Amino acid sequence: MPGNVQAVERAAAILQAIAGSGGRMGVTELAGAVGLPKTTTHGLLRTLLGVGFVAQDLDSGRYTLGPGLLGLGSHRPDANELRSRASNWTDALASRSGCAVRLGTLTDGPAQGATPGDVLVVHHVFRPDDSAQELEVGRRLPAHATALGKVLLACLPGAPPIPAQAVLARLTRATCTDPAALTTELRAVRHRGWAGQREEHTAGVAGLAAPVHGPGGLVVCSLGLTGPVESLFTTAGEPRPALLGMLTDSAAAVTRELSHR
């Protein structure tokens, strides 16, 4: 009976090491983790990168699990699972913050077309007041003009820049339509771990969002607050600290919930 294929075993070990780290790993770190020479590890990473099983961060050069793994097995939870596992936290967040809460997933990406793609709202909790509201589940939002979308674009494996030819529709006077400026903003979002938008999608409306990670460490959705500008941001244009803390704590709680699948 034929023995195991050594290259496959080594590639699997690299993927397991990255997944186990819950973050990003460099070549030297990975070589040490799997007990291989650095040159061998680098060659395997090049192959895994080519098939999309790993991605490389443009700023740090470190490696993460890639988008090619998302369709394999149960690596990424579907919309129904996201809703069921996040509902306790999203309900509590809406009650505490006084804002509407949404979960969103990216429907497309900048590498696949001339636009940055859309965000699909997979869960929506009304703000806890008596105002007229419409359920937004199933609604598509432009990724470049919403906090939900900016988080998802910023956390794509490898954080690719927005292509220079990308078409960024102007929705309000505040919408960013410059691909280079949006790329710079997305790098800042990736670094700090949250995104904001003020009147970029709808006049008078603001949003904050934070990433939710799946079991393998990849971002599977974004969790966001939305409401009037003055309710989410101070007069100096900064996110209200209490709301930002509630949001990031809730995103971390949903991440922990998904890790216990």
Automatic annotation (TrEMBL):
It holds the Pfam family IclR_C. GO terms for biological process: glycerol metabolic process; negative regulation of DNA-templated transcription. SUPFAM superfamilies: GAF domain-like (SSF55781), Winged helix' DNA-binding domain (SSF46785). Residues 5-67 form the HTH iclR-type domain. GO terms for molecular function: DNA binding; DNA-binding transcription factor activity. Residues 68-260 form the IclR-ED domain. It comes from the Bacteria. The keyword Secreted does not apply. InterPro entries: GAF-like_dom_sf (IPR029016), HTH_MetabolicPath_Reg (IPR050707), Tscrpt_reg_IclR_C (IPR014757), Tscrpt_reg_IclR_N (IPR005471), WH-like_DNA-bd_sf (IPR036388), WH_DNA-bd_sf (IPR036390). Coiled coil: none annotated. Keywords: DNA-binding, Glycerol metabolism, Transcription, Transcription regulation. SMART domains: HTH_ICLR (SM00346). PANTHER family: HELIX-TURN-HELIX TRANSCRIPTIONAL REGULATOR, ICLR FAMILY, HTH-TYPE TRANSCRIPTIONAL REPRESSOR ALLR. May be an activator protein for the gylABX operon. This is Glycerol operon regulatory protein. It comes from Modestobacter roseus.
